[in-house]
Amino acid sequence: MFHVLEHLSEPHLLLQAVHPLLRDDGLLYAQVPNVASWQFLLLGERWSGVDIPRHLVHFRAEDLVEMVEQCGFHVLRRKFFSLRDNPTGLATSLWPGLEPMSRRVRQVAESAAGRLLKNALYFGLSAASLPFTVLEAACGAGSTVLIEAVKA
Q1: Directed axis angle between helix 112-138 and helix 86-94, to 10°?
Q2: pLDDT in tens, 79-116
């Protein structure tokens, strides 16, 4: 479940429904934005992980672990870094108008050269965000938290 639970008003109900469907040796993976991240602490409401009104629930790692365990799982590990999500999330927070998918969804009118320039700037900003996002993740404060769990 990659970036699913934060979109549900009662995410524990999904976990309870998944529990009997998972084989005894099966693994549950769930990743959500981490409101205990340095990015959220620095950027507050401007952090892309807040994403109101699409995100209905906000998690810290301990909130996610507690909910997963209350639904009958045992957490094996936590991970605070996603190469796909952490650097690009910071880039999107710093310069929202560059994010390629939101430009497509909003059907922003732009020339081919303008689109190429914005995509290049977004890529550069994402690459420049990488050292910070690696550091925050190493300190257990990355902008995403992924848990790996098994049935308890």
Answers
A1: 120
A2: 999 999 999 999 999 999 999 999 999 999 999 999 99
Sign of CA dihedral 117, 121, 124, 130: negative
Q: How many angstroms separate the CA atoms of 106 and 60, rounded?
A: 30
State the amino acid at position 50 in one-letter form: V
Task: Answer whether the bond into residue 20 is a cis peptide, omega within 30°.
Answer: no
pTM score, whole prediction = 0.91
Q: Which residues pair with 19 in a beta bridge?
A: none
Structural domains of the chain in order of their starting residue, each with its CATH number: 5-151 (3.40.50.150)
DSSP structural state of residue 80: -
State the pairing for strand pair 28-33/73-79.
unpaired
